[in-house]
Amino acid sequence: MTARALIVEDEPLVAELLEDMLREAGYEIAASVGALDKAMALLETVTCDFAILDINLRGRSTEPVAAVLRGRGVPFLFVSGYGNAQLSQQFLDAPLLSKPFRDEQLIKAIQAVLVAS
Amino acid sequence: MSSLDQVIITAELARRPNRPADYEGENRALVALMDCMAGNPPTGDMLQRLVETAMRLCKAQSTGLSLLEQDPDGRQFFRLAATAGTWATHRGEKVPRSSACGTVIDRNTALLMTHPERQYAYIAETGTAVAEMLLVPFHVQGEPVGTLWVVNHDEGRRFDNEDRRVLLSLARFAAGAYQLQRQERLATDLASTERLQEISTELLGENQPGVLYAKIVDAAALITHSDFASIQVYHPERGEDGALRLLAHRGFTPEAEHHWDWVSADSTTSCSSALRFRSRVVIPDVELDELVANSADMPIFRRAGIRAMQTTPLVARDGQLLGMLSTHWREPHTPGERDLRLLDLLARQAADLIERSLSVEHSQMLLNEINHRAKNMLAVVQAMVRQTARKTDPDTFVRQFTDRLTGLAASQDLLVRNDWQGVEFTELIRSQLAHLGELLGSRIVLSGPRLRLTPAAAQTLGMAVHELATNAVKYGALSNAEGRIEIAWSLTDTQEGRFRLAWREKKGPLVAAPVRQGFGGSVTVRSVEHALDAEVDLTFAETGLSWTVTAPAATVMERSRRMGETQGSVGGS
Hints:
A: alpha/beta, two-stranded antiparallel sheet, globular, B: alpha+beta, Beta-Lactamase, 3 domains, extended
């Protein structure tokens, strides 16, 4: 069965890039959003097998999304240009991919979180 | 206009670019001056060293210090107590009361003069031209008693506000030193001056903020012979009047350290009073101070063993409050004037060092932020490369990609110029259409209210407009001789507020433009929907392309400015 991804990324072109990379690698996109409140609302209605979260959405952290996902046992991957400097203690060990990234780096990181779960 | 008004051009300073401040050089000079003060005999050539320092720091050609004196008949005149540079030979000479120095004393403010020799005979008599003369008053116990001045004889270099600041700072320092000398107190107790001078040298070499603060606290205790001391940094953003955070202390009990970790302006300590009054506060005996004695802090003072205290504000060169330096005693105590004056010298230096370490922290933070933005931008460029590379040959790719990158750079320029505080909408459109020259205002017509976009909206809408313009030139309304483009935007008055933007092409050739596919479609439709929570309608009517964006005003407009910026309106050009 094809794994379904939730993408939370505020930069539209980067979101589209992520969608393309995932589709080309054979994944499905469950949803792709750019705002925190939309992402939180989506968690109520959309199911996904993993998520890709930009840490910083125009100054707001996506950690609340990560916390819900962690509670449900859904694996996720942070992407950021900041490194992990913006993450709080509880997410310091979460997998993180630094921007910009190549297709194979992204896919490898996704496979790693899917296997780990 | 009188001739004096033509000579005094102080207002010019505000119009000139400032050279960057060299606090370190300045501090070294102050340490050298302190060194000189601590020497034996203490008077020495202090004032001479001072004017030489002024000359070096302001890169002047002549400099001097004039002191107001009285002859036996009670007539006032100035004595050139110290001089250096071209006019060094005039040292010791008398200058009339009605001189440039006299004008500065009368007005009691810094003055910049151009060719003062045209106004003052005694300057003309030197036979040397004076392109510019910058003078500051020199106070003792609040009274102006002299002036410190720098001169450039050649037209080449001009003084700026930084020179005025340096000169005022030296004058303040000199006033303190001069007063100490005059009261002949220095010789009686050299130890703490020498110690202060040693500490100053130590502090200059100290780059670890933690150690630095501890050393300042120790020095304050030593100078004021106190049992306790503390340094706090001011956080203006906390509460209504800001709050003070304890950085380092000497002698506090763990309870006191914990209790005074944060102190706000409405607390009852000397530092909170100093915060309210922005000046030094001395409490000689907390048991006798009504306000403190009845406060919640009193039991803590008793348990900590604190009976008397003083707090001296640490103020940056631009007047901003940086923090507080406090000392405390076990017995009732009123610190002596001399101790307080030495403490002022330490506070001046502590303020500079705190400012320096804050500015290092600030630069580090900015560098991290720039690094983050650069990486995000690289990811955007990466996405742009991928989208552009689809279905294009190498030549087209290079041309299109370069063109898009230029558009992105134009939006970035605008954002940086506006400090990332948002961009005026018309300005954004103009920057994206700048390459179309005079078409803007003739065949391209803009209309809508003034409004300020968020950085995200500026980048997204900037890219979309750039893409639409490129498309119009190639296939649309700008590809023939008579086509027109109307760009109109508006805000609805409803409580939530909707932003509406329309791009209408008219009288263009009848072709279905390929803007809907590939990168064009990404940035004109999907990106706008995604980033601005917008509804986008892109259609190709017979009359030409039509692009309409409707979005919540909250996602498009800079919040803080929304009210004021929607008042005016820009016309059709």
